[in-house]
Amino acid sequence: MNRSKKFLAISALALGVTWPMSGFAQANTDSTSAVAANPAASMSEGEIRRLDPESGKLTIRHGEIRNLDMPPMTMVFTARDKALLSGLKVGDRIRFVASNEGGKYLVTEIQLAQ
Predict the structure, then answer these.
(1) What is the structure's pLDDT at 69?
(2) What is the 3-state secondary structure (H, E, C) of the chain?
(3) pLDDT tens digits for range 28-73
(4) 6-26 confidence digits (pLDDT tens)
(5) How far out from the chain centre does Cα 101 lie?
């Protein structure tokens, strides 16, 4: 009988410690999963100020880029694929997705704003 009480006490203690922890795994949501669920939410708006399709670089005057925690400014980006720049020209209003990969700011998706 003594062993049964010990087993029950240890089981109750173990369950009391692990059960609340399972709620953390379910309740933990971060911004990257929200962005992955809604790709349009990660798009930023801007205007092309300079464009060099040969080098794959473009200068964008942009609003806030939330996924990079970046305030509005004008800066140079590199297109992940130079083909993304075809059909674009200086002065175009755009919507784009940017990422920071190894300290290099890349445009991974771009479309004309409507």
Answers:
(1) 94
(2) CHHHHHHHHHHHHHHHHHHHHHHHHHHCCCHHHHHHHCHHHHCEEEEEEEEECCCCEEEEEECCEHHHCECCEEEEEEECCHHHHCCCCCCCEEEEEEEEECCEEEEEEEEECC
(3) 444 444 444 455 558 999 999 999 999 999 999 999 999 999 999 9
(4) 766 676 666 565 555 545 444
(5) 12
Bridge partners (DSSP) listed for residue 44 = 96
Task: Quote the pTM value.
Answer: 0.65
List Cβ neighbours of 25 (8 Å cut-off, separation of 6 or more): none
Coil/strand/helix, residue 4: helix
Gap between the Cα atoms of 54 and 96, Å rounded: 19
Rounded to whole angstroms, the Cα distance separating 72 from 44 reads 10
Locate tokens 């970046």: which residue? 70
CA atoms within 13 A on the CB side of 5: 2
Residue type, 105: Y
